[in-house]
């Protein structure tokens, strides 16, 4: 299938990418702050996911060239254009939370 949905799936696949993008949208820009916002997420995975998002031009990195090391990540112009769409999907999920949670609970054996 060669269409936009395939590109979206390939670009945004990953357990934490959407959450990391949302953190950046909320101006949570340092890896340590992202780790505090999403405690289940390891620093290693944060770095991997951020590097992948940079490779897709959704995120930009600012290196302050300081000791100790200080870097921050920001949404790129392309990432900023994506966020209204992701916010809308998040609102849809919130509006349908009970139905979606019931479906997940009822079909947990199929989701593993």
Set out the fold topology:
Blueprint: H1 4-12, H2 17-25, H3 31-37, H4 43-55, E1 59-63, E2 71-75, H5 77-95, H6 97-106, H7 108-111
Antiparallel strand pairs: 1-2
Helix pairs in contact: 2-5
Concise structural overview:
With 112 residues, the chain is mainly alpha-helical. Helix content is 63%, strand content 9%.
Number of spatially distinct domains: 1
Strand content: 5-15%
Write the CATH fold name. Answer: Arc Repressor Mutant, subunit A
Briefly note the structural class of the backbone.
mainly alpha
Unreliable runs, pLDDT <50, ≥5 residues? none
Order of helices and strands: HHHHEEHHH
CATH top-level class: Mainly Alpha
**Percent helix:** 55-70%
Number-wise, the strands total: 2
Largest sheet: 2 strands, antiparallel
Discrete helix count: 7
Rg value: 16 Å
Give the neighbour order of strands across the main sheet. Answer: 1-2
Shape: globular
Question: How would you state the average pLDDT, rounded?
Answer: 91
What is the terminal separation in angstroms?
A: 25 Å
The CATH architecture designation is Orthogonal Bundle
Textual characterization of the structure:
- The chain has about 110 residues and is mainly alpha-helical.
- The chain has a single domain (about 5-110), classed as Winged helix-like DNA-binding domain superfamily/Winged helix DNA-binding domain (Arc Repressor Mutant, subunit A, Orthogonal Bundle).
- The chain has seven helices and two strands.
- It has a two-stranded antiparallel sheet with strand order 1-2.
- β1 (about 60-65) and β2 form a beta hairpin.
- The radius of gyration is 16 Å and the shape is globular.
- The two termini are about 25 Å apart.
């Amino acid at each position: 299938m060669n269409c936009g949905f395939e590109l979206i799936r390939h670009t945004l696949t990953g357990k934490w990418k959407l959450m990391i993008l949302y953190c950046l949208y909320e101006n949570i820009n340092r890896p340590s702050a992202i780790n505090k916002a999403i405690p289940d997420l390891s620093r290693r995975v944060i770095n991997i996911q951020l590097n992948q998002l940079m490779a897709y031009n959704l995120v930009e990195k600012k290196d302050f060239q300081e000791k100790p090391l200080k870097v921050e990540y920001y949404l790129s112009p392309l990432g900023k254009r994506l966020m209204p769409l992701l916010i809308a999907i998040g609102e849809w999920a919130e509006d349908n939370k009970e139905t979606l949670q019931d479906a997940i609970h009822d079909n947990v054996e199929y989701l593993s």
